[in-house]
Amino acid sequence: MDQNQMMERAEQLVGKIDDLPTIPVVATQVLQLLDSPDVVIEDVADLMLTDQVMTARVMKMINSPVYRPSHEITSLKRALVYLGLRHIREVALTTSFIKAFEAGTGPFDVNLFWEHSFGVGMVSKIIAQKVGYADLEKAYIAGIIHDLGEVFISHYMPDEFARVLAHMEQHQLKLYDSEAEVLGTTHCEIGLCMARSWNFPEAYQEVILQHHTVDAATIDPILCAVVNLSDLFCSVRGLNYGDREWVSFNLQEEQAWQILKHHAPALATMDVERFCYELDDAVPDVQELVRSIFSSTEQAEH
Amino acid sequence: MAISDKDFELLRDFIYNICGMYFHSTKKYFLESRLTRRMEAAGAKTHQDYYMLLKSPRGSEELKYLMDEITTNETYFFRNVPQLNAFENKLLPEIVEIKNKMGFRKLRIWSAASSSGEEAYTMAMILQEKRATLLKDWIIEIVGTDINETVVAQAKEGVYNAYSVRNIPDVYKRKYIKEEGGKFILSPEVKRFVTFNKLNLYDDSKMIFMKSFDFIFCANVLIYFDTASKSKVVQHFYNNLQPYGYFFVGQSESLHGVNDKFKTVHFPGGFGYKK
Q: What is the pTM of this model?
């Protein structure tokens, strides 16, 4: 199906929704503050402290095994110093997405969604490092947000999404193909509509749209390829929305692998087997991170 | 003796680099207990001492003892579930389709370190279930080989203990296993596809006659070989496969750096090597 047609269809579907989640005001202010040239960490900390839920989540994320601080960090300011200014952006954005969709119901378990998202974020960062991609945080965020459209479909169109899943299982399709057949569009186009309404930078918009069609990427093909491969690895190592989709791949046949090998020839000698085993070891860390982020909300809100 | 994270990683890397077997973090306590036994036997007081021993000229001998500790009593039916799922649901239908097109309705599978036969018979059960559908009118040949004549004899007998059969799904167990006085006896229905022979994987003159397999399984044996021997044996496996065949090693094993002809095919929970 033509991507323009699928885009039109996505715009119709997203346009119908009046109460599209918004990013919390504080997060937007934090992002603005981070963009100003003379930003100081104290100001960011003061602003974030006005949002208890965000503060609690930042503390949970910082002390999770995915970040691995050498000892527990107990103050927000120390957490922000540890993160550094560029990482604050990633944490503020991440906590906002969680906020936007925490009431998520529908066929997808929201925890499984975040496990996949954080998993792809973490693996994107590792692959970005291996290929010498300059901005590791960008890779991490891109990984976390790549499937935003999926949570929209599950949340706002639960009946249609249940049909997508049934169709996928019956015909043994990829989720992406099943969406195209049943909905006339996919999570990629739908995610792009959301990313536009949230004013995401273009590189992220492209990852959301092209992470299954990396050869169509023009703005940052390396980033798209990194996220595409992370998505594949997570999908075969237990961070895959609960085994619904059968994913199988051979790196040599993957466009993303070719793009990255061209960019970083040393990748050809990567020990992919060991990489998979190490990823298995990281799965409980990712699950724990997701659990802790969601339980922090309950503690802060009750 | 409790092992620190640092020592665990040190020993894990050592074992991986020499043997091609990865110890997941979840296996830390298992490795710890096995190490404790070997450290006592070898007179090493700390994990660091033991690591130095493994790296010393006497290390290769000690490593063999350690590997024996790590891998003994590990064989049982339906052992590597992700691998079996991929085999049954995707890779087998793929090969059947290829061979149907060629009009060549014969399936050949090799369990290349068959021990007492559990892996070969697991395959036999899975394939027997498909005799009325996917594999209707197909000839099925499963070959199990092992260097040890005692286990080959056991495999031929097809009588097992409760430990071996504990993972067999009920639907198979009801059909293919009969319990008699605490022993579990395999039905002739699945035994008939399988033959067992003694074979040394180092024996080039014999290896070249193992021909035309669609699938080869070789779990927990290559970890004992040095890199040169591994390469040689894996090259034999490559040659012994049909052009579209698959080769599998055990859970947590890796062939990285051993053979650059096979393509690694990933699937949920595992990977296999495609010719």
A: 0.90
